[in-house]
Amino acid sequence: MSTAPWRDPSSDHRSRPRLLLRGAAAAGALLLTLGACADASDSEQEADPSADVQRFYDQDLVFGACDGYATTATDETSFSSDPAFQCARLEVPLNYEEPAGRTAQIAVLKSPARGESTGSLVLNPGGPGGPGMGMAALTSTTLAGSPVSEKFDLVGFDPRGVGASTPTIHCFTDAETDAGDANTTLLVGEGQWTEDDTRRIADQCADGSGGADVLAHVGTRDAVRDMDILRAALGDEKLTYLGQSYGTRLGAVYAEMFPQNVRALVLDGAVDPQLGTAERRLTQYAGFQRSFDQMAAFCAGTPDCPLGNDPAEATRAFQDTLRPLIDRPIIAPDGRAMDFNTAFGAVSAGLYDAAAWPAIIKGIEEIQTGRADIFFVLIDAVAGRDENGHYANFNDALLAINCMDEERSTPEQQVDLREQIQQIAPVSDPGNGAAGARDACEFWPAEPTLGYPYADNIEGLPTTLTISVTGDPSTPFDAGVSLADTLGGAMLTVDGEQHTIASSGTSECVDAVVADYLIGLTVPAEDTRCAI
Q1: CA distances from 88 to 109, 158, 530 (A)
Q2: What is the pLDDT of residues 134-183, one digit of tens each?
Q3: Which of 2, 181, 209, 499 is flagged as catalytic?
Q4: Residue 120 lies in a domain
Q5: I need a surface site. Which of 193, 275, 298, 396 has the fewest CB within 10 A?
Q6: Domain encompassing residue 245
Q7: How many domains, in total, are found in the chain?
Q8: Residue 499 annotated to the active site
Q9: For range 33-37, the mean pLDDT
């Protein structure tokens, strides 16, 4: 096992940590993966709900104070920042095939429209595993001057298994995470797994989350059915939705399953619905290497660049800096270790946004002097670790949702993929080979339910809006082109070097296009471009 907690940077399809990176001068966040099984191209649209399911559609969603909903110190501050925020819990079936059985509670936060409300704008920040309640609270600030927050109630929900929703996914203790025993992938970074290791992961997740039946029902398709119940409980005839990163998968699958219930979908930082797990990860890691090269070129133009003044040699300089951490990690005053995996995770976080490059460069310089202060701040933001050492359940939920979405692979296939990633993104290569990679989901108690490709050949779907940033490392630009083509919708190209843009309030051009679409259902001209 590795000596530090590790998540795959390519699998963190969420936008909220990118905002943390922009907001902290020397800190920030982000990391992590996605995928599935079975062919969904011929999946049928959802029929009318049965009587047992209809009772969930008919429930009254009672909003009140948000006391008791926060699960992290950050959310505690965020949820109490505006007395107008309202919270509620939505009841849904745990297993839609057995709606009379066990139920789940979906936590919801609403920021009421500043003017006369025309309905709800449902938000998801990505992940999978990103909490939507926090996104709604944050977006109420970032879009405070937008006509969007004037016209719509901003509604964020924590998907099943995530954050304040129950049952909640828990696979690792805080102590295990601190000790480096909370790995969810070995596709990149250093370390090896045995069959016992991956079996232990599945057993711990089941024990900590309320049973194997919980693990079997946290996939995207179950979450999408929850979204339709939420739409009805909010009193909206049609869904108006803004999803970022993995949230674009939620939106696309909703379009596939409930096209008749779509009003408007903004899909920002697209996950490609046409690519299977392995192919998508390779395109993502090519994007991470490209972004690292861009950062290295920026660094080369600054005095005393720790990667040197020749961008062509920057990857080698980076490897020379991080590889010694495998055997000689930097130990923090609290005893935690900054090893290769954790340091690479911190750097990957910064690659999500060019605004964070100076902090990452300074962090690399610190590593070369035997310190890791900046990287610890970054990695704590990624994991949602507070000053008391408590972690958010993002990492645990990410694993569980991916296990129900991703295509599974044999140990031999994992080793081959790890080898390909090291070749296509040498910045991720610890230098000790590809052996020992295994699929963390190989002993998961249920098979994946998403299916590839998905969202194909949808009939009766209104025009959607996909937004794709040209220099997005996690969800490459071409993924946005693919999603827009798959849905037959409009697309907005944004020139820049970051992951997602629509809810940040940092581009007047993007904000105007999004507002025109959400409010008036007006899509931009085909050649429209914005810049960051």
Answers
A1: 7, 11, 37
A2: 999 999 999 998 999 999 999 999 999 999 999 999 999 999 998 888 88
A3: 499
A4: yes
A5: 298
A6: 53-168+219-275+451-531
A7: 1
A8: yes
A9: 33
